[in-house]
Structures are given as C-alpha cells and as structure tokens.
Amino acid sequence: MDIKPSEQIKKHIQNLWNKYLLAEITNDIMLNEISSGLYVENPDMQWIESLNKQNPLKYGIVSIGFSDTVDDAIENLYNYPEEFLPYSELTNLIGPEEMYEKIMSGIISQTEICDEKNITDNPYNKHIHIYKKIKNALLLKTHETLPFEFFQSYNNSFNTENPFLHIKTGFFKEKISYPVLLENNKVWMSIVMSEILSMQKEIEKAHGNVITYGLGLGYYTFMVSEKENVDTVTVVEMNEEVIRLFKEQMLPYFPNKDKIRIIKEDAFTYIKSQEDNMYNFAFADFWKGVEDGVFLYLKLLPSTQKLKNTEFDFWIERCFMEYYFRPVLIKMLYEKAFKKNINIYEPSKSIQKLKKDFEHFIKKQNIIISSEKDVDTLISDAKIKKIIYKFAASINYRHEFKS
C-alpha cells in the first residue's frame, strides 16, 4: 500500500482518524455497559416527558443509563492521557464538555426504542413453544429482558458519515421473554433483536435450494422454509445433541418441515465435497460470536470460491469488518500519511495476531491512495470484503491458521 501525499489527503485521513478515536471510545462504553446488563430501574417519567427533545424517552433513558460511565471515561482521558493513547489525542482538540456531548450524541444516535412486537409477533416465536429441556451440556429455556434494559442490536448498514461507530443498542418499554439455547451455562443462541436483525437480509435473499451451515435454534431454517420461493432447506450441523433437541422441540412446530433436510456433518468437511449447482443460496452461521467467528469465517471462505453458482452469505460478516479489519486499515492510513507508529491495545492474543497478519498482507498489496475518494473506497464495505476474500485465500495465512 502506498499513499501519494497531499495536504487534502492528509487532512481527510486526519479527520477520519479523529472520527475513529471518538467512535471507538463510544463503542467501548456501549459494549461494556450492555455486557454488564445495564438497565434503568423506575425512571422518572415526569422528568423525561418534560425534556425539550425530539425523542424525550430515548434521550432520557440513555442519559440516565450512560451519563456516569461517560463522565468516568472523560475524566480518565483528560487526567491520564498517557494511559489512554491514542484515544486521548482528542483531548488536545476538544474540551471535556464537548467530548461529553459528542459521546452522548453518538450513543443516542445508535440507540433504538424497539417495538415489543418484533419479538412477540415474530413468526418463529409465534409458532415455536419452548419448554425447559436439558440435553447433556445443552439447556433450552426462556430468558427475559427487563423494561429499559439495554441490549446489543445490529448495525445493518455502512454509515459513510461515521464509518467507525458500529455498536447499536436498544431497549423495550415492557418485559419481553425469548427462547435461548445455552451450552455449559453460556448463551449459544437466542431469538433476540440482534439475531433477528443480523439475519434479516440473508432471509430476504434466500431462494430456490438453500443450504445453511449451523442449526442453533433453527431460526434461520424456519424463516427461509416459510418463503414460497424457497424449495428446500439443507442444514449441516455436527452437534448430535443440537440436532436431537431441534427435532424434538422445534421441528414439530414447523409448518413446512417437509422442505427441511438435516445432515450431521462438519461444515468444513461437507463443503469440500459439495458440488456446484447443488444450492442456489448458502448461509454460514456456526459460530457463537465475533471473536470465534472471524477465524471460522476466514477458514471457510476459500472453500466457497469454487462454488461459483451458489450465492454465499455469512452471519455477522459486517461485524468482522467493523471490529477487526476496518480499524487496521484506518490505522495503516494514518501511520503512512503522518509517518507515525501507533500502538492500539488488543487484549486477545489471537485477534492481535490476526490484525498483524492482515496488516502484513495489506502492505504487500498494490493499493495506491492518490485521492480522498481512494481513502473512502478502501474503508468501504465492498472494498474491505474483496480484500478479506483475498486475505483468506493467501497461502501463508491458510497454513498458519489455527481455529
């Protein structure tokens, strides 16, 4: 990768870098609070209704829920700048009050008051009746989301104005119940807003003969089997207990169960023997989350390239770009433009290695940045996806890969 320096390009990269730093602070605050089970108990509705805001309920609940954490983050950034580099670079540009407003504005923009009907009226939840069931290490049960409890939602589109602010959250005004599958007491899959939204486009795109790698609670299988333009749904799942639980607890309630065929097989093994033209659409979803998923995704990608007549999609593929690959690209652009060496802390050794591998790969690519448009193109979803596919197919990386 090479940058043909100009003041315009440097200014554009600096602006994007500042957006990245602010977005990462905001993303981190939101993700940590959601993970901690943040909820607002008995909010003062009279005060909220008195707020002179476009959406007083959202503004009020977010302010109550996040203000203390945002205050703490700002105090740390301004009082201990050396410990919070490179994010504390922003303290040289804006004061604490403006920083507070920008972070809170980011959180509010990424928060949605969700309609309970998204869960209660979802076709899967209306058809499937979950009873507590234990199968060895697996536990099938229902969970509840409290009123005004923040949960992670899903970022379904690329925002050109702020390409790095990607964590989305939401809350319900009422208590909501939803099915969840646990393995060793850890959530494997649940039919919540993030799951529903993260599969929405892939459900819409499914047609003809569909294959999905990964079963879980059978949400994707159910939703595509309901489509008139879907003829068959083949599910590849290696966990015998998951298959057994699905056949006992969910499949009997599927109106179009005759469309569904389950194959007990490892996805990597099955796809190697998979012939082109067998399926029109394929959806891979056999990872639990972002960190384990990115490695399984990269491992699977090369095997999909030979199946030219099958359209492939991958669960939370956008998250892989947002969490790992786009941050590497903006860091490299900034380092190259300003001849700096930036160190960004990464707690996971495996992710740290992944980012380094990706950075080394990018350095060898014939990428020329000679305009602001080139910068924007490089960090776009479409371009990053193409680069990732080449990265996954690179011989050295495949040989070094360990899931």
UniProtKB/TrEMBL annotation:
Query: Which InterPro entries would you find in this protein's record?
Result: SAM-dependent_MTases_sf (IPR029063)
Report which superkingdom the organism of origin falls in.
Bacteria
What name has this protein been given in UniProt?
Spermidine synthase
